Amino acid sequence: MKHHSTVVSLSRQMMVFSGIQHDICSLTTLMNCLCNLKKVNLGFSMLAMIVKFGLQPNPYTMNALLHGLFNEGKVNEGVELFQKIMENQYPCDQCTSGIIIKGLCKSGNLRSALDMLKQISENGRLKSGVVCYNTIIDGFCKERRMDRALIIFQDMLDRSIEPNVATFNSLIHGLCKTGECRQATEFFENMIASGVSPDVIMFTCMIDILCKEGKMYKEAISLFNRMMDEGIYPDVVTFNTLIDALCKERRTDEAVMVLELMAEKGLKPDVITYSSLIHGFYLSGQWTEATNLFCKMVTQDIFPDIVTFNILLDAICKEGMMEKAEEVLELIKHKGVKPNENTYRIMIKGYCLQGEMDKAKDVSHLMVTKGFSLDLATRMLDNAYSKGKRTDEPKGNK
User: Fold this and answer.
1) SS3 (DSSP) at 213
2) Using CA atoms, how far apart are residues 349 and 253, in angstroms rounded to an integer?
3) For labeling, which of 147, 152, 350, 388 is most exposed (least CB within 10 Å)?
């Protein structure tokens, strides 16, 4: 646990009451605590005290100040301090370069981070290691600028900097988000061939890719088994990924088997697990199983969120049981869960399919009072009405 305030208080007591003299390690620790408390100005006061006592700052001293500036969003001041460190030969280490690169990327200055990486490489005092490259690659991947991320990755290889699992995690996630699943799969295979061992995040990502690639469930399950064979145990996210994919394909029996395996591994299902299974049961027409699972979910103190309620509401409305849907809507409100746009869309469509246009209009008016736009409510009502009208038309009519 982090007890920065406690450390600051104890340090003051040491100086005032016990007369114990601080050394560079204790003063740097105190400075780091102040910076983590977003009191970087006091951190600089500590630097002045270090100089006054005739002590020699070390890399940790400068790193604490640099981190403190970026932690407070003082990007320009952080860059200025880094330049002074480089120009005046202040003590620094590889962590220093990591802090400046991370600070620039986190503040959205990827271009500046690239320039800084080049400066660090040319200066020679610091090394631009795998952490620096990973930070920039991850930044471009999150912005879905995979062309730039791959260029940086190639530059990393050209400089004989070995990528690690974090490098591949960023690239594979980025490729998936931009729809380049095939290339992501190739990266995964290349990663293993290069001797980098996948972690649980990587395996989960690949299982998700295979599930989304189109009925490649045998491959996904095979990779799931391989993961466990290699001693990398799936987490809740891994299980949820596989369960959700199976449920969307109405393969509920297999999804339940995965759920049972999840329990055997000592993992507790969460609201996402239950929502996926409930949705799968409804898709398969297994009403009893879906209802029982919903009740089980509540008894296990896993409270349904609006996604779960919407799944339940949608299934009930499609069966034309609007009175039951109204009961569920009241339950949603009673439990303090806030209906969203999809909740109202489901109710409006349900009423229209049953020809209850007055109630559909009431829901659209309610939407407006809840802060949704009138245009959205009107559009939803018109769409739902037209679908309901087509459903009521005789099959011979075109």
Assistant:
1) coil
2) 31
3) 147
Structure-token pair, residue 350: 């349900």
8 A C-beta contact, residue 82 and residue 70:
no
Q: CA-to-CA distance for 325 and 96, rounded, in angstroms?
A: 59
**The two structure tokens encoding residue 278:** 């409930």
Which residue do the tokens 């799944």 mark? 311
Residue 261 in tokens: 């395996």
Each residue's pLDDT tens digit, 186-224: 888 888 888 888 889 889 988 888 887 665 677 888 888
Residue labelled with tokens 């802060």? 371
Q: Is the pLDDT of residue 13 over 50?
A: no
303, HSE (Cβ side, Cα atoms, 13 Å): 8
pLDDT tens per residue across span 267-323:
999 999 999 999 999 888 898 898 888 888 888 888 889 999 999 899 889 888 999
DSSP track, 136-176: HHHHHHHTT-HHHHHHHHHHHHHTT----HHHHHHHHHHHH
Q: Are 290 and 278 in contact (CB under 8 A)?
A: yes
CA-CA distance, 34 to 65, in Å (whole number)? 9
